[in-house]
Amino acid sequence: MQIAKRNDWKTEPMPSTSTNITLEKVYSQEEFDRIAAGVIPEQMEDKWFIFYEAPWLYLHRSWTGFCIFKVHFEVIAESVKIAEVQVNRDPEEYSNTDDERDASMLRILLDSRSERDVQRS
């Protein structure tokens, strides 16, 4: 399994115009390992570049490099939980301002990574 690193793609830092949202989720260590492996876009349709630098997971739009989400994880016993989520609120980089929509989209992104078959990653 290839592990995504910051230098694998163009990235921009999270702007100072950001907000914290609430997303409560706990993953097993195995699920978290799949999330932390990240995503390197392989084709134009791949919308996200994702990489992990402990304790933060960074989710960038692949076309622009803009950082849309930063997710801070904490180890709790045998599991890993989301401790904090920052979302880009710079209107020139990201137009959404609905916290619930962002939480839902982020949950889908993380869950789809956590559930992937390790062989396909």
What would you say this structure looks like, in words?
This protein has one domain. The chain is 20% helix and 32% strand. The model has no long low-confidence stretch (mean pLDDT 93). The relative contact order is 0.25. The chain has two helices and six strands. With 121 residues, it is of the alpha+beta class. Strands 1, 2, 3, 4, 5 and 6 form a six-stranded antiparallel sheet that branches.
Uncertain residue ranges: none
Beta-strand fraction estimate: 25-35%
Helix content: 10-25%
Radius of gyration: 14 Å
* Tally of helical segments: 2
Distance separating the two termini: 6 Å
Number of β-strand runs: 6
| Helix/strand order, N-terminal first | EEHEEEEH
- How many domains, as an integer? 1
Provide keyphrases for this structure.
single chain; 121 residues; alpha+beta; 2 helices
Describe how the helices and strands are arranged.
Layout: E1 18-21, E2 26-28, H1 29-36, E3 48-53, E4 56-61, E5 67-76, E6 79-88, H2 99-114
